[in-house]
User: What shape does this take?
Amino acid sequence: MEYTRISDANLITEKYMDSILIEERLIDSVVADIKTSFFGAEFDMPVMMPAFSHLKNYNGRPHTGLEEYSMAAKECNILNFCGMMENEQFKKLVDTGAKTVRIVKPYADNGKVRDQMQYAESIGAFGIGMDIDHIFGENGPDVVMGEEMAEQTSEMLRSYVDNTKLPFVIKGVLSVQDAVKSADIGAKAIIVSHHHGRLPYAVPPMMILPKIKEALKGRDVKIIVDCGIAGGADVFKALALGADACAVGRSMLPSLEKDGVEGVKEFIRKVGNELRYIMSFTGFSKVSDIDDSVLYKM
Ligand SMILES: Cc1cc2nc3c(=O)[nH]c(=O)nc-3n(C[C@H](O)[C@H](O)[C@H](O)COP(=O)(O)O)c2cc1C
Assistant: This one.
């Protein structure tokens, strides 16, 4: 019998998040306000859509899951993200009216990278970026849906930043080193993430977050956290540890598949309500006030 030891970074991340506990501060507390601003725009909460791709039409409904969650983003007034797709699909997401950040894959065909970024900007993307955690696959450069990826140097990333007026987001930062390089390159935000466990034994985003926050002190770089964000408590913990916002992920999929736009709206509002509840319970009246003084590590 073959012996295999499987590291599930998702489980490790979940365990870590669950080991962070919260104290109460009730006297003089008020009902909290969860509104937040990001890249100069006002949003209803510091919760964002995930950069998803390849979602089909669920239950015979006319729009793909990508379009449905984008519509929900628009209606909930939260920042939308999307991942690997062709330009025509991206146009449909922008047409929903959601403020959408286009995360482009690190394609080996660098012309395609530049084309997708330029096209996104030309039709009104809110931001653009790249998921650098899809550069490598098990046999060298990653191959996603038959398309080969390629190594990305600081110079390449800097040239994407220099070629756009939009804020540039580097997704898949999981070290102080990459966080500082992202800031040096001119990125306006990073997503601290292991991309639902691509790296075995990946450090939980929330575990490394305080170090990254410290390293980026005084730099104009927003910090978003994803991986395992399933409720308002997860968002609260991430904000307390130094994030500016969180993106939900697969936690949203059951609501999306079952009830489409309405299901996602309900899910997102529930996450927002939980965040407001915990902020009120801990004496933080607004998002920018939240700090880690209420957290305990088990
Ligand atoms: C169906 C699916 C498609 C995804 N496609 C992309 C993508 O194209 N680009 C990207 O940056 N991330 C992509 N992701 C990763 C998510 O953006 C996010 O980082 C991850 O799901 C977070 O982990 P969680 O699902 O455990 O919360 C995808 C995830 C899923 C489940």
User: Anything to note?
Assistant: The mean pLDDT is 97. The CA atoms of residues 40 and 276 lie 22 Å apart. Residues 10, 50-54, 83-84, 103, 131, 171, 193, 195-196, 226-229, 249-250 surround flavin mononucleotide (CB under 6 Å).
